[in-house]
Amino acid sequence: MLELKVKRIDIEVGGFEIILNEEDAKELGLHPQDRVKVARRGLITTAIVNISESMIKRGEIGMFIEISEKMNVKNGDTVKIAPTMRPMSVDYIKKKIYGEKLTKDEIYEIIKDIVDDNLSTIELASYVTAIQIRGMDMDETEWMTKAMVDTGETIDFEYTVFDVHSIGGVPGNKYAPIAVPIAAAAGLKIPKTSSRAISSAAGTADLMEVLTNVRLSVNDIRRIVDEVGATLTWGGAVNLAPADDKIVHVEYPLGIDPHSQVLASVMAKKKAVGANFMVLDIPMGPETKVPDEKTARKYAMDFIELGERLGITLEAAVTYGGQPIGRAIGPALEAREAMQALEGRRVSHSLIEKATDIAGMLLELGNIAERGEGKDMAKDILKSGKAREKFLEIINAQGSRGIEKSEDVPIGKYKADIHSPEEGYISIVSNKALVKIARTAGAPKDKGAGIILNKKKSEKTDKGEVLYTIYADSKAKLDEAVKIAKMLKPLKIEGMLLERIPSYKA
Ligand SMILES: O=P(O)(O)OC[C@H]1O[C@H](OP(=O)(O)O)[C@H](O)[C@@H]1O
Ligand SMILES: Nc1ccnc(=O)[nH]1
């Protein structure tokens, strides 16, 4: 064991990492990526070792933001460190890499180590990759979901709780800020939590954060649902299924979201708030998580079965994901478009149809509307302005940012129009290319960054007309996004030369 003086390093590294001087590391027999226990005043945490010759002096320990905050240390404090073993869950991850089925206890151990930050980013990334390639059966998925719930807090409401969730994968998917207030305006109780972006350029949590505080405590969620009927918050901020956000953290840069992880991630969040009934959105289309009907059915049946195992009645909606929902992509632009829809302004048909289809299913599940009449009722509630009122109540109860109208939403200061190289009809809109461009422009972290589509599939364009506009919070990222856009050409025009493949001799 060594006692070392803390030197805080103001960098977020996404996990518990420390830096030791080469000599101190040698004394303890430590190498880079080994683990140590770090202890101070009864607090003990596992951390991953990095080694430096000169940045950290002998007798010092460099502590990055995450571990400094967890251990509550300032410069000059002392901590004790000692080498420790790799957790057993690394062996279980390897078992999955080799394609074996995991037991309930092994899965619980992995999830517990994820929650306790005992796994390095490398190990966590291997876990996600192993699940993507090897998959999990329904038993493993159920155990994983329950482990995710049991390693966090849960909320018990005294009334019937409704919920809604999308598996994501289609850009511009801002159905929730419209569907949730419609259902809440009709009297349903919906404590909705969302993830941040996983494969897209804006998750519901990212876009809600433009308008309100999404970091609520369990008690705040309970109080606000009691008072106004619904919340729209970020799951990662509350201790509800806390493993989820840590897994999302490594899925995001990889842009992958394995089937059984989607099931566990969504359903753990629903179980943690005690949902009794829920609607699940499955966007289907090329370049989404669900390319065809067969995959959509598999998702729907697996979700329904997992729902049954957890005591949640679930109805799935397979929705059109062949191109973005609405015309806006990126947190602020999507928040603005959702508000425009709530204000009754003219927005894309696809957005209104999708949001009211889903809200209608919730109204029917809640026995507020007869079967087959939910959608019309949802449209009436939207038209009446009651959903807008409810939405403002929700965002004000969570913490007002002073945004009351769509015009108040701040969007990217820099923008560039992309023009059509020729006349014709739009034949292909590439979800993936649009996400790549929006992410290059800075979304989802730069809230104002993203894309507004001026043209969508089957629409006619003249030569030189604006196809879409890219927004960014910084000029450098805008320039980069324009470069990528010109390379990827996300909108194809019928008759357009798609690619020229020269002969070897050319
Ligand atoms: O599209 P990508 O980024 O893969 O999926 C992540 C999004 O999907 C879910 O949707 P919602 O909360 O029901 O809107 C998550 O909560 C998150 O907002
Ligand atoms: N993996 C996930 C996909 C969509 N939503 C989630 O919350 N999680």
TrEMBL record:
Q: Which reaction does it catalyse?
A: CMP + phosphate = cytosine + alpha-D-ribose 1,5-bisphosphate; UMP + phosphate = alpha-D-ribose 1,5-bisphosphate + uracil; AMP + phosphate = alpha-D-ribose 1,5-bisphosphate + adenine
Q: Where is the active site?
A: D257 (proton donor)
Q: Does the keyword Cell membrane apply?
A: no
Tell me which residues make up the Pyrimidine nucleoside phosphorylase C-terminal domain: 425-492
Q: Where are the transmembrane segments?
A: none
According to its UniProt record, the EC number is: 2.4.2.57
Q: Where does AMP bind?
A: G169, T204, S265, K289
Q: Does the keyword ATP-binding apply?
A: no
Which Gene3D superfamilies does the record match to this protein? Answer: 1.20.970.50, 2.40.40.20, Nucleoside phosphorylase/phosphoribosyltransferase catalytic domain, Pyrimidine nucleoside phosphorylase-like, C-terminal domain
* Name under which the protein is recorded: AMP phosphorylase
